[in-house]
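Q: What would this chain look like folded?
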Amino acid sequence: MLDRLIVVCPNTSYCQATMPRCDLDPHLTSRCPGNRAHCPNEPMGCTWHGPEEAREDHMWECSYRTRAVQAGVPIKDGSLTTIEVHRRREEELGISFVGGNETPMVGIIVQDIQAEGVIARDGRMLPGDQIVHVNDTDLKDVSHFVAREALGQASSPIKLTVYREKAERTGQKEVHRIQLNKVPGVPLGIKIAGRRNEPGIYVVEVLEDSVAWRDGRLMADDRVLEISGQDLREAEPERAADVIKSCGDKIKVTYSRIVKPTAPDLIQSLNADIPVETFNPANLVAALVQRSEKVINIRKSSRESLGISVSGGRGGPKGDVPIFVTSVQPDGPVGKHHYLRRGDILLSVNGANLWNLSHLDAVKVLKGYAGCKALCLKIVEADTPTNIEVERYSPTWLTWLTLPSYCHTAHKVCLEKINGQSLGFSIVGGNDSSHGNHLQHVTIYVKTLVPNGAAAKSGHLKCGDQILMVNGKSLSNVSHTQAVTLLKQAPRRVELTVISWPGTLV
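A: My prediction, written as structure tokens:
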């Protein structure tokens, strides 16, 4: 008799359901909104369940959050995963990273993975992953240099808690059949074209106030399969145009469209699924300041070499970066008087520019002045030395970011959206950003790449890249919302003008 007694769900803040007592347990287990959400760490043993609104708070308190998954278990996209890696003494992690709360990126993002490092050997992390925790250090809202110290000096075994963007999933193909009725004096209004390396004919644009536009069903990127019974799956656009002309007043169109199971906004301001803590102004570090030039006058004998080694240069393996000092001989004329140190960037020597030269050309210029007794070097000073040593030294990402603007070299990146998918990257920044708007020009940054997205597949866009223009339209000093709108409204083929700097090595 008691099983038939009507009871009220105890989760009254989220549920007002009533039911027989015998149905209460099944309701609480699988139907109650107050218990519907489960912890993402459930596979590791967490038994928490509760309302969706409470899941975010729980994830930062969950005792399973920092428990590493077993070796070889892949990182799950769209959620936090903790992995454990081991490194030998003096061995590098082998990643370059960008970000930090001095910049609009705020978080710490993997830009590249070095072929012979610890992370490459483990094989699970990818460019675009956000590192939110390393051992006992929270990296969600720290400076670039705090992150560098934490990652560079982390003791083995190293626990890395990583967030990866949700992979873009291919949508389902839908086939539609419509009939368009010609109207005297009104164009049909369908612009069609073929695609490079793809068979078939696609709608490029539906012209405003045309017959097709008024009908409202055809859209850009739809693939035309048949027109009035004529198979056009392998046809050229000219053939389709001829078929349309030969039709009467009624044109029957069969077309296919790729429809995503969900429509996630993959150009976004932040990772919507990563828990965030309340912004704390005390976490902010000093604002980024554009670096100024410094003039160094060196005197030596005509027989002495400078005693320095340099790297960098236009078109090099690191990209278009200026010439920088990689080592200084302590007993050379530069080392004895501490004129230069590792990481200093060389802009010119005795008035001859070095910043836009290839490595070989820059070395030739430096050697050409080797016999001079007096040298005047224009430089940008390096960052303060740290205890972190890496085998292939390079200045930090922040050093490149704050160079004088004439040292910045932009290049073009072309992306093509396939089957209606997005560009596949998230952006941050803009003139309404709360972080990093202290440089001369407010900039939009690429924050993360979506696995399997157009940007990741192209290999030409990196996390931390600054986007200056979209199809010739400037993003200088625009708001984040304006930048997102411009990217979303871009056609299938998009040309980005970007500045790309190598990330900081650890």
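Residues 261-286 have pLDDT under 50 and may be disordered.
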